[in-house]
Amino acid sequence: MQGYRMELAMNNVLQYPLPGKAMKPGRLRPLLMALGIAGVFASIGTPSIADATDAPRRPNIVVILGDDLGYSDMGAFGSEIKTPNLDALANDGVRFSNFYTHASCSPTRAMLLSGVDTHLNGLGNMDEWTAPNQRGAVGYEGYLNNRVATLPQLLRGAGYHTYMVGKWHLGKAPEQIPAARGFERDFSLLDGAGSYWDMTNFTAASPQSVFTEDGRYLTSLPKDYYATKTYTDKLIGYIDANRGDGKPFFAYVAHQAPHDPYHLPKEWRSRHVGEYDKGWDAVRQERLKRQVELGIMPAGTQLAERMWFVPDPIVLAPASRAVLGKKMELYAGMVENLDFHIGRLIDHLKKIGEYENTIFVVFGDNGAEGTDLFKMIAGTPGTRDYLFAAINWSQTHPNAWGDPGSYVGYGPMWAQVSMTPFSQYKGWLAEGGIRNALIVSGPGVARTKGSLNQGLMHVADLMPTLLEIAGTRYPATLDGRELPALMGKSWGPMLAGKVDSPRTGQDFLAWELFGNRALRQGDWKLRWQYKPYGKAAWELFNLATDPVERKDLAAENPDKVRALLTLWDGYVKANNVVLPSRSTFETLEDQLPPRTPDDPGYPPLIYKRQFVPPKELLADPKP
Q1: What is the distance of C-alpha 288 from the center of its chain?
Q2: 343, 416 contact by CB (below 8 A)
Q3: Mean pLDDT for the stretch of residues 349-357
Q4: Is 60 exceeded by the pLDDT of residue 30?
Q5: Above 90 in pLDDT, residue 14?
Q6: Residue 600 and residue 69: Cα distance in Å, rounded?
Q7: Helix (H) or strand (E) holding 359
Q8: Residue 56's pLDDT is what?
Q9: DSSP letter at 353?
Q10: pLDDT tens profile 76-135
């Protein structure tokens, strides 16, 4: 990292001399002495401007975010979905199987860009679900607040170009948009989701999605707009526009894909025809088998329980399985199209000679989406949103799925497939809501290429890690205001192969969202969730022996529960956690059938096959 700091100092000296005065070679040595780095040049005499090109180059940094991309959706993590470009990054770098985000999109993004807990950075709750008792509270503004510094802001100050394309979801006012929070260039969707084809949004009150480009609000989208393609085109253009100045770049590639609605060009919709008609249980079993073979999960790992309200696909009629399977076909196409455009970016970096000097960080922002968002938003007949959906999202025939005006999500059954082998999915604090696949590749990664690491990691670690890579550090104050302490830990020693995890057994991670709560220390996880996904009481799991959270050990280990609750109470106090007076899950127990165990083959009635007597005992009826 010392070389990066040296280059930063050199860049400041060489590129930014005093106004109106050219930097003469004879005047450079006193300035270098003042900076404490003159000794580097002692053996080569007075340096020239050209000598600066021999300084170590700081790497470019590319963070690629898949929106609702599941833990097992990449080939490198056990999927049948074809992701050759992401798999190539994994083979050239390291996969991390014990990486955590938050349970939903904007909280994860806020921690990624600030390095600070959500209850301090403004996303203590999602803006869309802020509870009455949280309104006006510090840390619950519903946007990335100005009490925190942002990663692009600090990297830009350290001499990096900073680019963003994709989904923002951290505020819409002029002082909250990407251009105001450190991004030099951006093409951004400010909403949490929307059409991939146009500016159509989801509700009557907010019928049009909001986009910005370089700090200006767009009145229309480019011709031939398709989200994943356009984001990639724009980023390549930004990189090329500044190639000549020699400065490194930070690119935040916050793809909308594969978040629903599943909008796809026609040529990407039929790559898996009939493949998922076998049903979700079979695909989950196949993925887990590959995960064990890859070393991602240990031998003997069970699948999490199938959600009790999801049917066994075996009992469904073939036509029903085919229709539900088609939704997963579209999702697989979304992931493969995403991989294709990531490949376009990688190929371009290779073409211009920047690939070898670029660090890639790839992950999904939360668990896969198992909730029917369209049903939640559209509501019931007779409401304005239902009418809006009927007019603007009317393409409901399966043959039109993927077109503008269609809305397809794949439901809880396929979300569980995406989160194989874990329990539950986005919005919840079971492992399926917060555990994500992570790939890190590029310079500075000294671990064996293609290897797998089990270290305990968190999305907030990216701030200290990437600042270290860039040769700068997190400041105590910024613009005269004191900054909150970072919650993450640098991956530097781990990426260098010096340690296997950035955390010790005494460190802990904690989460709260929508009133659900969790804390992990070592192999132990404490979890509180609303019924019926939880017990509305604290549950305890040992993730070393039970990574899919099947067996609650709270009653057997009261001392461990008390110890972890002490840590939880400290976390609440330190981070201004305000448990919500209302939650999006408050009526869920009344909406779903009573929770029952997932016992294979029960009830036997529906699985019993036709009895076939022995042939020698067959006979026609007697006259």
Answers
A1: 21
A2: no
A3: 98
A4: no
A5: no
A6: 28
A7: strand 358-364
A8: 74
A9: T
A10: 999 999 999 999 999 999 999 999 999 999 999 999 999 999 999 999 999 999 999 999
d(CA 202, CA 213): 22
CB 352 within 8 A of CB 423: no
Residue 8 has pLDDT above 60, yes or no: no
Q: 279: Cβ–Cβ under 8 A, 6 or more apart, which residues?
A: 312, 313, 314, 316, 321, 325
The single residue listed with the structure tokens 């999006």 is: 584
Tokens found for residue 200: 């159509």
Helix (H) or strand (E) holding 11: helix 2-15
In this structure, are residues 313 and 252 in contact, taking their beta carbons and an 8 Å threshold? no
From CA 120, how far away is CA 233, in angstroms rounded?
Answer: 35
Kind of pairing, strands 451-453 and 94-100? parallel
Side-chain-side CA neighbours of residue 351 (13 Å): 9
Cα(317)–Cα(433) distance, rounded to whole angstroms?
Answer: 30
Collect all residues with Cβ–Cβ distance below 8 Å to 443 and sequence separation of at least 6. Answer: 59, 356, 357, 358, 359
Q: What is the pLDDT of residues 395-429, one digit of tens each?
A: 999 999 999 999 999 999 999 999 999 999 999 99
* Cα gap 534→531, rounded to integer Å: 5
Residue linked to tokens 């949004």 = 201
DSSP letters of 64-90? EEETT--TT-SGGGT-SS--HHHHHHH
Q: What type of residue is 489?
A: K
Active site residues: 105, 169
For residue 20, pLDDT beyond 80: no
Q: How confident is the model at residue 55 (pLDDT cuts 50, 70, 90)?
A: low
Whole-number Å distance between alpha carbons of 505 and 473: 26
Is the pLDDT higher at 379 or at 22? Answer: 379
Judge whether residue 19 has pLDDT over 70. Answer: no
Q: Which two tokens stand for residue 496?
A: 């260098």
Separation of alpha carbons 190 and 169, rounded Å: 5
Name the average pLDDT for the chain. 92
**DSSP class per residue in 468-501:** HHTT----SEETTEEPPPP-----HHHHTTS-S-
d(CA 593, CA 609): 27
The answer, yes or no, to whether the previous bond of 594 is cis (omega within 30 of 0) is no
Q: What is the 3-state secondary structure (H, E, C) of 135-193?
A: CCCCCCCCCCCCCCCCHHHHHHHCCCEEEEEEECCCCCCCCCCHHHHCCCEEEEECCCC
- State the Cα–Cα distance between residues 173 and 179, nearest whole angstrom: 11
pTM summary value: 0.90
Identify whether the C-beta of residue 396 lies closer than 8 Å to the C-beta of residue 31: no
CA distances from 360 to 47, 152, 230, 294, 487 (A): 34, 16, 20, 22, 22
Question: Which of these, 323, 346, 499, lies nearest to 399 by C-alpha position?
Answer: 323
DSSP 507-563: -EEEEEETTEEEEEETTEEEEE--TTTS-SS-EEEETTT-TT-----TTT-HHHHHH
Say which DSSP state 197 is in.
S
Contact yes or no for 341/334 (Cβ under 8 A)? no
What is the Cα–Cα distance from 438 to 108, expressed in whole angstroms? 14
**CA angle (12, 57, 94) in 5-degree steps:** 135
Q: Is 282 helix (H, G, I), strand (E, B) or coil?
A: helix
- At 399, which amino acid appears? N
Token duo for residue 49: 């401007």
Write the DSSP symbol of residue 311: P
